[in-house]
Design goal:
The complex is a heterotrimer of chains A (273), B (343) and C (346).
Chain A (H helix, E strand, L loop, with lengths): L8 E12 L5 E8 L11 E6 L3 E6 L10 E6 L3 H7 L6 E8 L12 E7 L3 H13 L7 E7 L8 H7 L4 E6 L9 E2 L2 H8 L6 E6 L2 H13 L7 E4 L15 E2 L2 E2 L6 E3 H4 L7
Helix pairs in contact in A: 4-5
Chain B lengths: L3 H13 L6 E6 L6 E6 L20 H12 L8 E5 L1 H12 L8 E6 L9 H8 L4 E6 L4 E6 L2 E6 H4 L2 H4 L11 E3 L12 H7 L3 H13 L6 H5 L23 H6 L10 H14 L9 H5 L7 H15 L27
Parallel strand pairs in B: 1-3, 3-4, 4-8
Antiparallel strand pairs in B: 1-2, 5-6, 6-7
Chain C lengths: L2 E4 L3 H6 L5 E8 L2 E6 L18 H4 L3 E9 L5 E5 L7 E6 L1 H14 L6 H8 L1 E6 L26 E6 L2 E6 L2 H10 L3 E3 L2 H14 L13 H7 L5 H5 L8 H4 L7 E9 L4 E8 L20 H20 L9 H5 L6 H10 L3
Parallel strand pairs in C: 2-6, 6-7, 7-8
Antiparallel strand pairs in C: 1-9, 1-10, 2-3, 4-5, 4-12, 8-9, 11-12
Helix pairs in contact in C: 7-10
The chains are: A alpha/beta (273), B alpha/beta (343), C alpha+beta (346).
Chain lengths: 273, 343, 346
């Protein structure tokens, strides 16, 4: 029997990790379905339900190759995300999905992948990065250029330290700090500084809207074509299935026709996100 | 009687001299006989301006937009904005001045007389015309309106199609103005608070029944709030989202914003919304009647606010919207204010 | 086989429909709306246009999605609250509203079906009423691929012929509904059919307004995204929701949890109409708003109806009912706006 698309499946929180503390807190949650769940593709999102508070559309940041859990990293921003941050191990939430389109990673086999992320923006593209690492022989060189406002704002701190042994990782923070040895400046500036080669490379960028815009500009400057640049777009969402109208951009609903877009596709749409 | 040409001449003068940025006026709508708001920016456009019994809108509402617009500009044009006002509309300007929401120098007030009759109620006119479509409508000279329809001319006594608020008008001539067009006239058909008195004859139970039935119809389109010049809050109690957000607003602050109203248009939420709005307008509503006119399901919204206007007068001797120097109702008190609720 | 129903027998048809929720236009406080017909004898189809269109029957303004309740075990019990699907019949549906339902079908159907909408939609029978004369002075259905006697989206169509109705079944549901009336219907004669056809043909000449030559408007709109045109057109907009709430084709909605008890936590997830014209519609929690001003929101309404929907579904998302024109408190006229787009110098 086909399930009611608005009815969430129940899942329990199996781990909670604080990535970033303080005012712009980010936490990573892993969840396990109580009953039959769903599988996803890289780039897809799910609606997390905190009953009584509402829903929030969050990218699934774990690789689809991991079957035991779904992972979400959430920036505390408003009513629902604050309630999500109050969750503990064992809390029950609702999850419905998977929603949206996926990164066409099949078609990227044999190519290099450059990940350019800022702040919480690393989470939506993390699934691609993890999958590419797990299927290392299918992909070329993997490079990560990632930055945050300050060093405490960096997400996946331990994972990034571990990544350095597996792929090229360039980190940055906006303003110099005494202990910081790597690049100081915005991610876009770091891209121009490190000049990764566009040869046979796909670039994926994600972060705050302004960061996406500047990174796309920087990537174009160093020779990446519009079709080589991918991003994932965020918009206010409610139904997640392209009916309530809220995330509408041009002829698309971001929840259904996106959130993954190549810059070639995205620039055809009204710049209203 | 004020003619279109009188207003156009004044508007042209103002625009040619560069004294005002633009003028908020009335023009003929696409149906060819009813007025709509228009923004005249160039002297050559003044011929769009009309004046007549269908100029029902309270154009003071657009002064709120002007203020919001200026707030977003780096180097705003500080010239005043011209605005056509009737007597009731001018009281709205008085309120905005009392509350220091606008400065007197930001507005160039073109006061216009609405003659002995006031303006029409479109629904009443449609009922009276019984299917005939109006083509033109003018102020008559003798307590009536002159109407031409697709079946000929007809003169209707004003009392039959006047707007309800005009039947209760206490200020049929502009109170604040920079220029005055037309003569002050006496409104002979006038019974202030007449609509409220009818409801007051009902028992509490019957009043509750009446308002429950009426407010059940509400679809929460917020037409009433949106059309009101005094509903200028950046963040309204009816809004569930935090509008006044800056990069420094914390998640906790947003999460803690109380959700006073559910979006559902059910009776509990509808009554809450309308009662709170009425109370927030106590001593501020000047009965321009726009809320009721805007309502697509014809809820008699004026009465809620009118009742509080009456209470302001009875309890506190307060006349709403007459003196820009006077403080707002709820920001002042008199020693002789009633205290019988203090036990 | 088309039928004739005497007007005086209309209430008998309603009386035979006890198994249905019967909706018909009713005048309350000078406003017409589709309401449950409590008294069949009081129902009259002699009316212009409802304020709220027939969409409210298949897509009500408030609808429960499911109930949630905190379980003793620490989890939650969810109970979906699908509509019963009790058969409903709506009389007096104007052809523009029938067409509009076809358009909302496109949105709520597709790969992912909205069960709530379809439960109501599949159990609803829409009985149209042909517009012998335009219900309002702002009707322009012919300009947007509709007509005053269109059968699209309707299960049956009634046409007034003096003191009778010419009743045509369009779908199986319509046929069944007519058969419920039994002997009160008579077979229509060829002369009746001719008379009805004449009413239909004449009705097309009576529309007061037109929106001409709009074939190129979708492409035109694409090029006008950044134009200051929208600032000028939206200047008098007061950002209420009247145009969109009362539009037969608009379908945007909000989903919220309404809590009825805190301990144990219990409540319902509810969906309600929403509108792209409210400032908070697209606002992110961060405060970022992709459509921060009235110009952007008016542009969205016009673009969605005359460009985006056309690109996806090859149909204007407007059926020319004129409600938005009649009921806008400041007289923003969609016909005028689209004409200006059409004539805008590129």
């Amino acid at each position: 029997m086909r399930a009611n698309v608005y009815l969430p499946k129940l899942a329990k929180v199996i781990s909670v990790k604080e990535e970033v503390g303080g005012v712009r807190s980010i936490k990573t949650f892993r969840t396990q379905f109580l009953d039959v769940g769903f599988t996803h593709k890289c780039g897809q999102c799910a609606m997390l339900s905190i009953f009584g508070k509402g829903e929030s559309m969050i990218s699934i940041s774990s690789s689809p190759l991991i079957k035991d859990y779904l992972q979400f990293s959430i920036l505390k921003m408003g009513r629902v995300t604050s309630a999500i941050h109050d969750l503990e191990v064992g809390s029950i939430i609702g999850i419905r999905g998977p929603y949206g389109n996926a990164f066409p990673i099949e078609s990227w086999k044999g190519r290099n992948i450059l990940f350019a992320g800022g702040g919480i923006g690393l989470a939506p593209i993390w699934s691609v990065l993890q999958t590419a690492l797990l299927l290392k022989k299918d992909y070329g060189d993997l490079t990560l250029i990632y930055g945050a406002r300050t060093s405490p704002d960096i997400v996946f701190k331990e994972e990034l330290a571990d990544l350095k042994s597996k792929m090229t990782v360039h980190l940055s923070i906006d303003v110099a700090e005494p202990e910081w040895k790597e690049f100081v400046g915005f991610v876009a500036q770091n891209i121009l500084d490190k000049k990764p080669s566009p040869e046979n490379t796909i670039a994926i960028t994600c972060g705050p809207p302004i960061m996406i815009k500047t990174c796309i500009k920087a990537l174009s400057e160093i020779g990446f074509k519009d079709e080589q640049i991918y991003t994932t777009v965020e918009n206010k969402m409610k139904c997640g299935i392209g009916k309530c109208g809220r995330c509408n951009i041009g002829r698309h609903y971001v929840c259904k026709d996106g959130p993954v877009y190549s810059w070639a596709e995205l620039r055809q749409l009204p710049q209203e996100y | 009687m004020v003619k279109h040409e009188d207003v156009r001449a004044e508007a042209k003068k103002l625009l040619e001299s560069g004294k005002v940025k633009y003028i908020i006026a009335y023009e003929l709508g696409s149906d060819g006989w009813k007025a709509n708001p228009v923004f005249i920016k160039k002297p050559e456009d003044v011929d769009k301006i009309i004046w007549g019994p269908t100029c029902v809108h309270n154009l003071v509402r657009f002064l709120v937009d002007e203020k919001r617009r200026k707030a977003l500009q780096k180097n705003p044009d500080t010239r005043p904005v011209g605005v056509m006002v009737k007597g009731c509309d001018s009281r709205a300007i008085v309120i905005l001045l009392q509350e220091k929401f606008i400065n007197r120098k930001d507005v160039h007030i073109i006061g216009v007389s609405c003659e002995t009759t006031g303006v029409i109620d479109e629904r009443k006119l449609a009922k009276k015309l019984k299917g005939w479509i109006a083509k033109t409508i003018e102020f008559g000279s003798d307590e009536n309106f002159l109407i031409t329809t697709d079946s000929g001319a007809v003169t209707l006594p004003a009392s039959e199609i006047m707007a309800d608020r005009c039947l209760e008008c206490i200020a049929n001539f502009p109170i604040v103005f920079d220029v005055l067009l037309g003569e002050k006239t006496k409104r002979t058909v006038c019974h202030p608070f007449g609509s409220v008195e009818k409801i007051e004859t009902l028992t509490s139970a019957d009043r509750w029944k009446f308002w429950s039935e009426q407010l059940e119809k509400c679809v929460r389109c917020y037409g009433c709030r949106s059309v009101c010049p005094m509903c200028y809050c950046d963040e309204c109690v009816a809004d569930t989202i935090t509008f006044a957000v800056s990069p420094d607003t914390t998640a906790e602050e947003k999460a803690q914003k109380i959700k006073w109203l559910d979006k559902s248009p059910v009776i509990s939420e509808n009554i809450f919304y309308h009662m709170v709005r009425a109370i927030h307008l106590a001593g501020r509503c000047i009965d321009c009647g726009e809320c009721e006119r805007a309502c697509p399901v014809n809820i008699p919204l004026r009465m809620l606010n009118k009742k509080l206007e009456k209470e302001a007068k009875l309890l506190f001797g307060y006349d709403v919207g007459f003196d820009p120097e006077k403080p707002a109702l709820i920001s002042c008190f008199r020693d002789e204010d009633p205290e019988d609720f203090i036990r | 086989m088309d039928k004739i129903l005497a007007k005086k027998d209309f209430s008998r048809w309603l009386e035979a429909l006890g198994a249905y929720d019967v909706y018909a236009p009713r005048l309350i406080d000078d406003v017409w709306n589709y309401e449950l017909a409590a008294d069949p004898k009081a129902v009259s189809l002699d009316y212009p246009q409802t304020a709220i269109p027939a969409k409210k029957i298949v897509f009500p303004q408030r609808e429960f999605l499911f109930e949630f309740r905190e379980a003793d075990t620490g989890g939650y019990e969810l109970k979906e609250l699908l509509p019963e699907g009790k058969p409903a019949v709506i009389f007096g549906v104007r052809p523009c509203e029938g067409k509009a339902v076809i358009l909302t079908d496109l949105v709520f159907g597709g790969e992912i079906r909205d069960d709530y909408y379809w439960k109501r939609r599949n159990s609803a029978v829409l009985v149209g009423l042909a517009c012998a004369t335009p219900p309002t002075t702002n009707c322009f259905c012919l300009s947007v691929n509709g007509s005053p006697h269109s059968k699209e989206g309707l299960d049956a169509l009634m046409t007034e012929l003096g003191d009778q109705y010419y009743v045509e079944a369009i779908t199986g549901k319509g046929n069944k509904l007519i058969s419920e009336g039994g002997a009160i219907f008579h077979e229509a004669k060829p002369a009746d059919k001719k008379a009805a056809e004449k009413v239909h043909a004449d009705s097309e000449k009576k529309l007061a307004r037109e929106l001409k030559n709009i074939k190129d408007v979708p492409a035109k709109l694409k090029g006008m995204f950044a134009s200051p045109f929208w600032d000028d057109e939206s200047m008098s907009c007061i950002r209420c929701g009247i145009c969109t709430y009362l539009c037969p084709t608009c379908h945007c909605f909000d989903i919220n949890d309404e809590v009825e008890s805190q301990t144990p936590l219990a409540g319902r997830r509810v969906r309600t109409w929403d509108t792209c014209q409210f400032p908070d519609f697209t606002m992110h929690s961060s405060g970022h708003n992709p459509r921060p001003d009235k110009a952007a929101r008016l542009r969205q309404r016009i673009n969605h109806k005359f460009q985006y929907f056309v690109e996806v579904w090859q149909n204007y998302q407007c059926t020319g009912c004129g409600r938005c024109i009649t009921l806008c408190p400041v007289g923003i006229d969609i016909i005028k706006v689209v004409e200006k787009v059409r004539d805008h110098a590129s």
